[in-house]
Description:
single chain, 163 residues, alpha+beta, CATH 3.30.1330.40, 5-stranded mixed sheet, two-stranded antiparallel ribbon, 25% strand
Amino acid sequence: MASGSEAAGTGTVSEQLDALGITLPVAPAPVAVYVPARVVGDQCWTSGQLPSVDGRLVTTGAVGDAVSVEEARAAARQCALNALAAAAAAVGGVDRLTGVLKVVGFVQSPPDFHAQPSVINGASELLQSVFGEAGRHARSAVGVSALPLDAPVEVEVIFSWRA
């Protein structure tokens, strides 16, 4: 295997994914006119990723209403996996990713719901478990009234990478 980034102190990102029992999904296809990820210099910016598996959303609806916080955390984790897959496809392999710079999470929620950070922790915790210290990142967690396809969460990630 080509040399890759160190992840969570155990070797490459792919080795850390294996150690965590995680199979990286195929990068989801765009649902509109955009690219899943864009490389600029030593950064890879992903488009907003929805919580889909095999082209289907894992759940739909507003968090705190139709979707529980725990279900939404799991959905945010899936969004992060999809972002990781999109970035890996853009840079030529997951082991070229060296860390996480920023996460932006959107949570479909009613006006009286205020646990958006707890929901987006699902994405942050996954990325930190994969990248270790290099997975610590800046973050925003924002409540919104609606998301595409009635998704409960959407996550964007900015990764660092090396050729």
